[in-house]
Amino acid sequence: MSNLSLILVGLGVALLMLLAYAATRPGEFRVERRLRIAAPAEALWPLVGELRGFNRWNPYERKDPMLKSAYSGAASGIGSRYDWDSKAVGTGSLEITGQQPGRAVQMRLDFVKPFEAHNQAEFALQAAPDGSTEVCWTMNGPANFMSKLMGIFIDMDRMVGRDFEDGLQNLRQIAEARP
Question: Lowest CB count within 10 Å: 49, 104, 115, 135, which one?
C-alpha cells in the first residue's frame, strides 16, 4: 500500500470517527443567561413580555441598522408576532405563545436563513426581596445531525450566550435609567 493510500484510509477513518462522535451528541440544546436588575418585575414586564418592548433592547436588532421588520397578529400578548429580514442576523420570526403576566413569557423562534431552525425562547422574571428582579433568558430546541457536527467546532452556548449577556445588559441600562 502506498503512502497516499495510507493517508486516504487514515483520513477516511478519522472522518468516520468524527461523524460517529457527532451522532452521540445530545439531541437538544439549551442556552441560558441570568442577570439581576435593580427594578421591580412590574417595571420590566413591558420590556420583556411585549415584542415592541423587547426590541428596544434586543441585541440582534442592534446588530443591523438596515434590518427590515414587521409586527403582525395580536397587538400584544399571545399571538403577537415579529418578523425580520437582515443580511447580518438572517431571516425569521418570533411569536408569543404563552404568558404569565409579570412573571414569564414563552415564544416560538423560527429561523429561515441562514439555516432553518425552530426553537423555544423564554423570559422569566423572579422578584427579589430587595425590589430587584432576576431575569432569566433561555432558548432551547432540537439539535439535528448538522447542528451536532457543527457543535464539535463551534460552542453555541458561548456564541449565543454572549448575545444574551449583551441583551440583558441593554435591558439593565434601560430599566435602571427609568425614574
Answer: 115
